[in-house]
Amino acid sequence: MDLYFSPLACSMASRVALYEAGAEANYLEVDPPTKTVLSDGTDFRTVNPIGLVPTLRTDDGVVLTENAAILQYIADRFPQSGLGAAAGIERTRLHQWLCFIGTELHKGLFIPVLDRKAPQETKAYALEKNLSRLDYLDNYLKGRDFLLDQFSVADAYLVTVINWTMATPLIELAKWPNVKAYYERLRQRPSIAKAIAEEFELYKAEQARKKAAA
């Protein structure tokens, strides 16, 4: 299978899940400004017209988009990994957390704050409206190792999003000690440590390319 990604973007969650599952995949880096696949110079939009990562092409040639859907596909494709949840209330809880991370944290809180073109008023509004989501998460994580009863694709997504606090000084993780402890603990997990280290190096190379082109 092929995973189209950009360094340290939300697509890193799929990389973590694939590493956790011990799955083989081709990792194809997409340059965000140009939507170019760096390995061959092709236009990524011929694969995903919206031009967003992650995008996954399965071994059967099916193209999947949207982070939560791809993560659930990986969990179902590799059930021995334990990344998913059994049918019933546990699977619904997994859906609940994937939705919460994707809407309340990823899109609701972090995207406005990370957007360099967003007015300061927009950033301030996003913080005022959505920091309470971190309060909720902090209370939930008290005394818990994972979002569910075991490490799941929801944790892979959450760690990826919390990792963005390194680039968002307006969100000081120390204010949420349980979230901070969760993040620091999970980033030592081999699959996560490997993904962060590899994508950080690719991110540095990406920034060097931008600087050279400026």
TrEMBL record:
Keywords annotated in UniProt: Transferase
Entry's transmembrane regions: none
GO molecular function: transferase activity
SUPFAM superfamilies hit by this protein: GST C-terminal domain-like, Thioredoxin-like
CDD domains given in the database record: GST_C_Beta, GST_N_Beta
Domain GST C-terminal: 87-214
Lineage top rank: taxon: Bacteria
Domain GST N-terminal: 1-82
Protein name: Glutathione S-transferase
